[in-house]
Amino acid sequence: MIQFVSFSLILVGLAKFFIYFSLRRFRVVFGGNFRRVVIVGNGKSVTQLEEFFNENPDYGYKLEKTFTLVPNKKEQVEECFNFVMENKIDEIYCSLAELSNAEVNKFIDFTDNNLKILKFLPDNKEVLARNLIFDYYDYIPIISIRNIPLDETANKVIKRAFDIIFSLVVIIGILSWLIPILAILIRIESKGSVFFKQKRNGLNYKEFYCYKFRSMRLNEIADLYQVSKNDPRITRVGKFIRKTSIDELPQFFNVLLGDMSVVGPRPHMVSHTEMYARRIDKFMVRHFIKPGITGLAQTKGFRGEVESDKDIIYRVKFDIFYLENWSLLLDIKIIFLTVVNAIKGEEKAY
């Protein structure tokens, strides 16, 4: 059975690839198997689509004409309909930026009644370029502009179970013997607590205390200024544990308490969160899910000190991608990359 299923999957896959590439070659060499299309509207997206159709004949589309809808929109729309019928056009691509709701409905009615395929280009209506989630409340259609997998109960349970198991393994297997050793080393070099706690913003912007091994001498500006390269506040032991990311390990207690997750957007100190929320577009979106000890942005090199707006902008982009595309496999991949980066050492780990 295993041999039969494996052989069948390979054979079907090879057949599909053969047909796919054969059709693409057939379109280029013999000019057949094309879908005839027209474009309605103008603008950047229309120009890009024209170039795509003209430069990629192997995809099977043949652009017959573009209707710019100027100077007379009504006449151009009627001319388009006549052209489609007379020339046996298969598909119409419309730029939504050029059409009113009434005109959009007119195109929908025309294509439905004449067995033509209608597709839209979002253009400046960027909301329509998203992965929209379509749902019904009774008979009322509802569209959500952002899909967050962790809003689903099953995914929450899976992620929480993984967080608890993983954090217990680290706490029992590593922190149980590491804490006494680091406690001695930290206290020998400087006075103060072994642990450092700081208010951070988490899920739904709620504040919580984030725990770390103390890596700096006691100072009054710890809650105001990020650590910078060659920061005089950092102790010798602190330099080592920051370089290896050991200082972050107490956050597994935060995970066990439910304030954080193993993987998620990195939480910022409260003063910085308020500052970035005012300056950086969509910064607050990252608070739809729990913050993490590590995250996708950190594995891509955007960790540590924020030296310019570019650092935080890309961090936010990766965080939003993560919350919209979460999976347990993605979490495992991020954890693996984090461990690899910690072993190799990172430029901004200071």
TrEMBL record:
Task: Respond yes or no to whether keyword Protein transport is given for this record.
Answer: no
Give the UniProt subcellular location, in the record's own words: Membrane
Q: Which residues form the Bacterial sugar transferase domain?
A: 159-343
Q: Which GO terms describe its molecular function?
A: transferase activity
Could you say which residues form the signal peptide? none
UniProt topology in membrane:
Multi-pass membrane protein
InterPro entries the UniProt entry points to: Bact_transf, EPS_sugar_tfrase
Transmembrane annotation, as ranges: 6-23, 164-186
* Pfam families in UniProt: Bac_transf
Enumerate the UniProt keywords alphabetically: Membrane, Transferase, Transmembrane, Transmembrane helix
Q: Which family does it belong to?
A: Belongs to the bacterial sugar transferase family.
Q: Which NCBIfam families match?
A: EPS_sugtrans
Annotated PANTHER family: COLANIC BIOSYNTHESIS UDP-GLUCOSE LIPID CARRIER TRANSFERASE, UNDECAPRENYL-PHOSPHATE N-ACETYLGALACTOSAMINYL 1-PHOSPHATE TRANSFERASE-RELATED
- State the protein's name: Colanic acid biosynthesis UDP-glucose lipid carrier transferase
Please report the organism this UniProt entry assigns to the protein: Flavobacterium gossypii
UniProt lineage: Bacteria, Pseudomonadati, Bacteroidota, Flavobacteriia, Flavobacteriales
